[in-house]
Task: structure prediction
Amino acid sequence: MKFNFPKTEKEAKNWEPYFTYIVIHWKVLVVAKTRIEGKWNAYATPVPGMSHEKEYYLWETEGLKLPEEIARVMFPDFKELPYAR
Result:
């Protein structure tokens, strides 16, 4: 997968992170997102389970950051990017 990261201040103003998620239980998601500096993180988060497409944002308040070893197994598309500590 090819990720685009900003190279200029102008590009940074319009940049949006890439998000993806995996459903590991109807009430638990694992969310991965890129960061502006070219790294990424993954978080496990509980959700109500009514609409995952609307619930994945709960990682921001409820998510627990995954260790890199687990995150890399779950999201192999991010293999080229460093994991943010």
In short: Residues 34 and 40 are 4 Å apart (CA to CA). Strands lie at 19-25, 28-34, 40-46, 64-65. The chain has one domain: 9-78.
